[in-house]
Design goal:
512 residues, alpha+beta, six-stranded antiparallel sheet, five-stranded antiparallel sheet, 57% helix, 14% strand, globular
Length: 512
């Protein structure tokens, strides 16, 4: 007998593994390139770049940080973009300069950068520090300024702590507790004393072109001389800048400050979403694969579940707004918070409704992953357990589900990755542009699910498209995007390590 088979081209089987390996290597290379771009553009924002004193052909001088250089149209030369600061003097903080028009470039060590709460940074020279105790000039003014800024930082931290941790809880309990009014008066007096110590004093500044400015000291946050800093000092300043970005709240309409509330809100929302979606997704997958009759209706339900995974996320946001916020939340306000109406408690967007909306969005992913894991468990495992006298429930809980746990966690990993990056539905069900207080504190019930929260994805969108200065916002966009990727990576790695632990414990074979 002659066996006929399909004709095979020589070398095709040997080429496919190389093609697959090349595709994987290219994907990893592109991922590394993306992370490198985010890291360089984002983390480089906190490096104390040198200030360049530029003298133009007409004799005008400016001090700024060189950002980038571009070719002029028709190859007529090149121009360079400088971050010059001094918005209160010039009306803008950016300036394009033709490279051919630059006569002299230098880096004087006495040039100062001041980070201010208003008008952005100042670039220039420090002439004097004036306080009630007297006037200090020259190099002594720089040393006195550093000491004064350290004291102001401590005073601001104490004032903000009293306001956030004492005053705000007292105001909430003012109607229920009459003794809170006395304590509130005492703390308010202490805050006024701190504010009075912060207020007072001024700096006499001079721009490089000779214009002078009197700067209130209370509006100055930090001061440094980048051209006089040693490499270790710059590294320390960079580390402090990164820490402030991670630990502080935003300011200046999200164009400055840190992203700690956004980090906390993103992680807490993802954790709450995982707690909700995991049991419902796993139970639904078990029912469809192990309990339900495998007929036409079950087949249609599976098709519907898979189609739900392709529904645009904004549709889930509209559903969450109508059902969770206005429907369930409005009913809760009428039943339990009628005395606070018309100001809604749960009838407005918040952390709870955002978590439930994303749980509904990612539910099909967990269901499909659970079903795939159950389908990979051999039937002889089920039959062997039943033959040894186990009930059907014992067979499911002690044999099938432990072997399916890695697949379930795979679904949770995919759900976390998608939920952490979603922005569109959150805009309808609870995310806020600015929510400096995190929804967790020492006041009962400790986790306030009704509060609005900040999210890293929405923060990126807001800074990139709603800011007054797109060029200044770009480094913050890169840094926040890198942070969002790292948060998702940490959450996913936690689930992956747990999955490998369960796989090794229950002896599930890896897929080949």
């Amino acid at each position: 007998m002659i066996r006929l088979g399909r004709a095979r081209l020589p070398g095709v089987e040997g080429a496919m593994p190389w093609l697959a390996a090349g595709s994987v290597a290219l994907s990893l290379l592109m991922l590394a390139g993306l992370l490198s771009l985010l890291a360089v553009r984002g983390m480089g924002h906190f490096w104390p770049a040198p200030l360049t004193l530029v003298t133009l052909g007409n004799g005008h001088q400016l001090a700024g940080q060189a950002v980038r250089e571009e070719r002029l149209p028709n190859a007529a030369g090149r121009e360079r973009l400088y971050l010059t600061g001094n918005r209160d003097l010039d009306g803008a903080i950016w300036r394009w300069v033709a490279v051919d028009d630059i006569v002299v470039q230098s880096h004087p060590r006495d040039l100062v950068v001041l980070e201010r709460t208003r008008w952005g940074n100042f670039h220039g020279r420090l002439l004097a520090l004036e306080e009630a105790a007297g006037r200090v000039e020259g190099e002594a003014a720089w040393a006195a300024l550093q000491a004064r800024l350290e004291a102001l930082t401590a005073l601001r931290e104490e004032r903000d702590r009293l306001r956030d941790e004492v005053v705000v809880p007292l105001v909430r309990h003012l109607e229920q507790d009459s003794s809170a009014e006395t304590e509130l008066s005492r703390v308010s007096a202490r805050i006024r004393v701190l504010q009075a110590r912060i207020t007072g004093g001024s700096l006499l500044l001079e721009s490089v072109d000779g214009r002078r400015l009197e700067q209130p000291l209370e509006q100055v946050l930090r001061a440094w001389r980048p051209n006089a800093m040693s490499p270790p000092a710059k590294i320390a300043a960079w580390a402090r800048g990164v820490w402030r970005f991670l630990a502080e709240g935003p300011r200046a309409a999200n164009s400055a400050g840190g992203v700690w509330p956004a980090i906390f809100g993103t992680v807490l929302m993802v954790l709450l979403m995982s707690v909700v979606v995991t049991p419902f997704g796993v139970l639904a997958g078990i029912y469809l694969n192990e309990v339900a009759h495998q007929g036409r209706l079950t087949h249609l339900v599976r098709i519907a579940v898979r189609n739900l995974a392709g529904v645009p996320s904004i549709v889930y946001g509209v559903f969450g707004l109508g059902v969770f916020v206005y429907g369930i939340g409005g009913s809760l306000d009428e039943w339990f918070f009628a005395d606070q109406l018309p100001s809604p408690t749960f009838g407005t967007g918040g952390l709870l409704w955002a978590s439930l909306t994303l749980a509904l969005l990612t539910l099909p992913v967990v269901i499909v992953a659970t079903e795939e894991g159950l389908a990979r468990v051999p039937d002889n495992q089920r039959e062997g357990a039943l033959a040894l006298g186990a009930t059907r429930v014992e067979m499911l809980t002690r044999v099938v589900l432990p072997m399916t746990a890695p697949a379930m966690l795979t679904g949770v990993i995919l759900a976390v990755a998608r939920a952490a990056g979603e922005v569109a539905p959150l805009m309808l069900v609870g995310v806020a542009k600015l929510a400096p207080q995190v929804p967790v504190d020492g006041e009962f019930p400790y986790i306030h699910l009704e509060r609005k929260f900040m999210h890293l994805g929405y923060h990126i969108y807001d800074v990139a498209f709603h800011g007054d200065d797109v060029q200044a916002a770009l480094p913050l966009v890169y840094a926040t995007a890198l942070l969002l990727v790292l948060v998702i990576l940490v959450l996913n790695l936690t689930a992956i390590f747990l999955r490998h632990h369960l796989r090794a414990r229950h002896g599930a074979r890896p897929r080949r």
